[in-house]
């Protein structure tokens, strides 16, 4: 206490000076309108600067919270966009399914519309992934077509997706024939051109012309008879003693593949059961 009193006594001149300066400023700015106006203007400017600086500091330290809030809002908006896209896609699939006009011979088949998730065309063994799976009625060994022709055969299924052996896969052999002709052979792709396949093992006496359409033979439960595959190209036969091969230009453009239909043969199980009895 003694030291504090000594401090005030020692610096009493400065305290008296500050007191009189304060009183003078009060008298000056309160009694004179011009000085009062200058004071208020300057004080407002200083206060505004201080508030702006304070707000900037607060905003800086609040950036993380603001960023988290924006990210949350973006996530909610993205979820809404995805939900809307799914609804539009379902409406589009229903519209495509409604436009499929099937002849009486195809009434036993159901077509499941699906979209391509991934696709390859430049490998020796190409595969396609679709956004439909077992939960949508897709099973292994179902055929896949698009609006132009044959695409491939399902070989692996998940709950909501499936993998398709593309027609551009040298492991896939498809029973086909020249339209209007009962003789059939095996269609196989040997690469590297994604537009050309080979129709092999055609009997030597098969009659055809350049430009004829190649279609599925119907000799399997995968594809119905008459699904377009491609057209016969000019001067492409290779003959041996009993069979020859045709080069076929495929109808399906695998480089732009987007929407397909999975072929569900409702009588497949019945047909396979009958074939098993015949084999026994």
Structural features, described:
This protein has a six-stranded antiparallel β-barrel with strand order 1-2-5-4-3-13. A six-stranded antiparallel beta barrel has the order 6-7-8-12-10-9. The chain contains five helices and 13 strands. The mean pLDDT is 76. The protein is α+β, with helices and mostly antiparallel strands. Strand 1 (109-119) and strand 2 form a beta hairpin. The longest helix has 37 residues, at 63-99. The chain is rod-shaped. Helix 2 (12-31) packs across helix 3 (33-61).
What proportion strand? 25-35%
Number of helices in the DSSP assignment = 5
**Strand arrangement, largest sheet?**
1-2-5-4-3-13
Computed CA radius of gyration, to the nearest angstrom:
41 Å
N-to-C CA distance = 117 Å
Low-confidence stretches: none
Sheet of most strands: 6 strands, antiparallel, barrel
**Helix share of residues?**
25-40%
Order of helices and strands: HHHHEEEEEEEEEEEEEH
Computed structural class: alpha+beta
Mean pLDDT: 76
Shape: rod-shaped
Count every beta strand, where a strand is a DSSP E run of 2 or more residues: 13
């Amino acid at each position: 206490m003694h030291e504090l009193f000594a401090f005030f006594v020692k610096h009493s001149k400065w305290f008296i000076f500050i007191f009189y300066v304060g009183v003078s400023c009060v008298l000056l700015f309160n009694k004179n309108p011009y000085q009062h106006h200058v004071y208020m203007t300057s004080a407002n400017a200083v206060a505004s600067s201080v508030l702006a600086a304070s707000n900037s500091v607060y905003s800086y330290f609040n950036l993380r919270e603001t960023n988290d809030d924006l990210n949350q809002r973006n996530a909610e908006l993205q979820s809404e966009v995805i939900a809307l896209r799914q609804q539009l896609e379902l409406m589009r699939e229903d519209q495509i399914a409604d436009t499929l006009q099937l002849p009486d011979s195809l009434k036993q088949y159901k077509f499941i519309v699906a979209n391509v998730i991934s696709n390859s065309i430049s490998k020796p063994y190409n595969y396609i992934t679709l956004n439909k799976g077992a939960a949508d009625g897709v099973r292994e060994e179902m055929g896949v077509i698009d609006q132009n022709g044959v695409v491939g055969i399902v070989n692996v299924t998940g709950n909501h997706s499936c993998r398709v052996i593309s027609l551009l896969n040298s492991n896939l052999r498809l029973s086909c024939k020249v339209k209007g002709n009962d003789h059939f052979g095996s269609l196989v792709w040997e690469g590297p051109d994604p537009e050309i396949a080979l129709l092999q093992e055609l009997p030597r006496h098969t009659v055809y012309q350049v430009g004829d359409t190649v279609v599925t033979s119907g000799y399997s439960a995968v594809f119905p008879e008459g699904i377009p595959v491609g057209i016969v190209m000019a001067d492409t036969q290779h003959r041996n003693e009993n069979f020859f091969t045709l080069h076929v230009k495929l109808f399906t453009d695998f480089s732009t593949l987007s929407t397909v239909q999975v072929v569900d043969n409702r009588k497949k199980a019945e047909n396979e059961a009958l074939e098993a009895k015949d084999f026994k």
